[in-house]
Specification:
This protein is an alpha+beta fold and 182 residues long. The protein folds into 2 domains: 11-120, no CATH class; 141-174, no CATH class. It has helices at 11-23, 44-49, 64-68, 86-93, 111-120; strands at residues 31-36, 96-104, 141-144, 147-150, 159-164, 169-174. The strands form 3 sheets. The protein has a two-stranded parallel ribbon. Helix 1 packs across helix 4 (86-93) and helix 4 packs across helix 5. The longest helix has 13 residues, at 11-23. The model has no long low-confidence stretch (mean pLDDT 82).
Length: 182
């Protein structure tokens, strides 16, 4: 029977203590893999609106600006730079088997900074998996056969302008799917 343990702790401090205990002779195993989802540090808007004396972000149409001004998904902990520090990743490097692999999530605008920190800590960067997506604001328009329309005015089967790579021109195509980001 396997013995599992759930630890609620600052992960970097825990890794440093674990490495120190190993160094002092405790018989603690090394790990085969690292899985992580550190803060994404999408804090540029927090820096603008979160400073003391800053004007409060306007509500706008749906409150998105006010939510974003509080940090990613409204979380203040997302500020800082812990994922961009090589010392963060070095703490984990010390408790992994040689050749162990890692899978760590990062923000689309900041993952490159995290990858450099991971590499600077001694890890080898292998091909990366990217979650490619795009969300536009509510007032973004698309050119349809009936003129410019916002996303809520378009449906599947609407004829929209697309780039035809084979003909190297623009033509109308039927919209086959809509993805709406919340």
């Amino acid at each position: 029977m396997n013995n599992y343990q759930l630890i609620h702790s600052d992960a970097v401090k825990w890794a440093r203590r674990y490495a120190a205990r190993r160094k002092c002779g405790e018989d603690l195993p090394l790990f085969h893999a690292l899985f992580g989802d550190p803060p994404y540090h999408l804090s540029t808007i927090t820096k603008r609106f979160g400073k003391p004396g800053s004007k409060q972000a306007q509500y706008g149409r749906d409150g998105a600006f006010q939510r974003a001004s509080r940090g990613f998904m409204g979380k203040k902990w997302d500020g800082g730079d812990v994922a961009f520090r090589p010392s963060t990743w070095r703490a984990f490097y010390r408790i992994l088997h040689p050749g162990a692999f890692g899978m760590v999530f990062g923000g689309s605008r900041t993952s490159h900074r995290m990858a450099v920190a991971i590499e600077d800590a001694g890890f080898r960067i292998h091909p990366q998996i990217g979650w490619v997506y795009g969300c536009l604001s509510e007032d973004t328009e698309i050119l349809t056969i009936d003129g410019w329309k916002t996303y809520d005015q378009v449906s599947t089967c609407s004829m929209v302008v697309c780039y035809n790579i084979d003909k190297d021109n623009l033509d109308y195509q039927s919209c086959v799917d809509l993805s709406i980001c919340d």
